[in-house]
Amino acid sequence: MTMTKRKVVVTRQLIDEAQILLDAKREELEVVQWQSEKPCDRSWLLDNAKDATGILVMLSDKVDEELLEAAGSQLKAIASFSVGTDHVDRDALRKRKIRLGYTPTCLTDAVADLTIMLILMAQRRGGESIAKVMKGEWPQMPWHPLLMTGPQIRGSTVGFLGFGRIAQASLQRLLPFGIKRVIYLTSKPGQLAKEDHFGLIKDCAIPIEPAQSADRLAKESDVVVVGCALTSSTKHLVSTDFFNKMKKLAVIVNIARGPVIDTDALVKALDEEQIFGAGLDVIENEPNIQADHPILKQPRCVLVPHIGSATIETREQMAMESVKNLLAGLTGEPMVNEVELSSVTETPKY
Ligand SMILES: O=CC(=O)O
Questions:
Q1: CATH number of 6-106+312-331
Q2: What does the DSSP 8-state code read for residue 222?
Q3: Ligand 1, closest atom to CA 257?
Q4: Quick one: which of 72, 87, 126, 325 has the most CB atoms within 10 Å?
Q5: pLDDT tens digits, one per residue of 207-256
Q6: PANTHER family in the record, alphabetically (predicted)?
Q7: Is the shortest distance between the CB of 59 and ligand 1 below 6 Å?
Q8: What architecture is the 108-303 domain classified under in CATH?
């Protein structure tokens, strides 16, 4: 008797061991995989999702009613190759009892490392300095005492908008630089003791205090780190009002999701020297940022193309965990990391 193979859809080629792990299952699974390096076409995904039991997606693939309808009622699991899950309609999954796997732990170090890079780039005018040298302008700007000066990290108050694992790992890296104080805003203040990932909240050499409001965080921080999830309550949480309250020598770094910062407001704040600088790993409407985008005209803004988790080790691990989550979702076994979908999803408030 021939058994019909369960179908899984994978929206990207995977790396080394993860691809081997997936390929090893081809005897029992029909694996349909997008073949290009580019994000998969929506129409390809909708066509191929039909009859799938599991789908492994990237953060660029929307998981919504349309996709779930196209897949059909046999769909058991979505495995997302990401920590963020704002591309997934959680309520639509919960309604259908579809499990959701993600990769929140293995990318913490890589993203926290990039956070430090962006803070230093923004304070020390890294992007602006490199651009000048590359344009051959160094001969016109010989060394002088005020050349390319920016604020120093030692003594800074760092304000974390979102104080989860990545923010706390960033704080761990910032402590040896001699920062003086931390303030934070979190959607889950009651859970911080339980989510003290590195023991810093319980026991830190410098004060760590709740900011109480976004206004206060804006007013008191020398460095603002945006590390919160994108929800309806965090979209444009950082806008003109926020920038107007920031210190003139403060910098802002976004390693979360672009739409948390209103880009037009950021351009204006930089243009009017309302703030000192910005370091962005993410931006609204990425990756469609053309060379004439106004943010690219801002010398004090350094923008990198969403590379927070882009270390070889981390991407290999994300791929492995995503495949493991996908396979566990098919068999009902525990995932490496699974989003808790059992209760109604409340939008966290800031
Ligand atoms: O932004 C990256 C991720 O969510 O993994």
A1: 3.40.50.720
A2: S
A3: 1
A4: 325
A5: 999 999 999 999 999 999 999 999 999 999 999 999 999 999 999 999 99
A6: 2-HYDROXYACID DEHYDROGENASE-RELATED (PTHR10996), GLYOXYLATE REDUCTASE_HYDROXYPYRUVATE REDUCTASE (PTHR10996:SF277)
A7: yes
A8: 3-Layer(aba) Sandwich (3.40)
